[in-house]
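REQUEST FORM: STRUCTURE PREDICTION
Request ID: SP-0412
Submitted by: Lab K.M.
Chain count: 1
Length (residues): 254
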Amino acid sequence: MRFTTLVIPASEIRTGDTIRGYYRPDVTMTTAVAPGSENPDWSDISLRAGRLGIPYKATQDGRPALASLRTSQRFTDHSPILITRALARPAELGDAIGRIAAFAAMSLHESFPHLSLEGLVEAFTSSAATSMLAARFLSGQEHGLTPGQAAAEAGTALIRGWAEARLETRARPDREAAIPDEMKLVLQGLATLGPRMTASALLFDAPCPEGGYPCLDFVQHAIRKGWAVRDTSVPVHLGQPVTLTEAGLAALAV
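STATUS: Completed
RESULT:
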């Protein structure tokens, strides 16, 4: 089991936390010095926690958990307290991760009903997603977040990561559709010159443009890429018309 040492307000003490110390009455959550952040010259000694000789395990939540401490100091809900807290056990962690993934999937589906709930659940319970959720959930607790806050932070990160990946996936075809300038000239020629393809040559009815006619190899490449198509209903010896497909028009527009 993993543990983390925190400085928290008395109101956030939870049953099972180990209380290790408390701060002077004039020290606030803002000024309290956490273990590991002390100045080497001890100039902040008045802002450090006074350690208990015997750590005390809280048996109730919130400020009432401090009632059993042998001290005359009066605590408020905002008094900084030094504690050690156990992070989620493996079984608890697995349950938390499942709940976070399910809640994130349902929330997205409710907001965007066209998204498949099954698909979202599958995406959010993949090994990569659950590993990220576990890391963010535990990290949040290590930095003082409550389980609910850590779960919310992890869920938000999951949805943000999913959205960024979705945008990246959508953008990829646009980038892949981008073609070299020389191929754009070929597609422009196919769109404007009305070429016809025989078994070994291209025939053009339009006058030769300044840049020359498209090369047969380039036209064949455009057909293989799905940017153009030849009309096979026409006999080859007459020249089969070559026209742009929707993909070719889209590639030409990029």
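NOTES: DSSP finds seven helices and eight strands in the chain.
Reviewed by: T.R.
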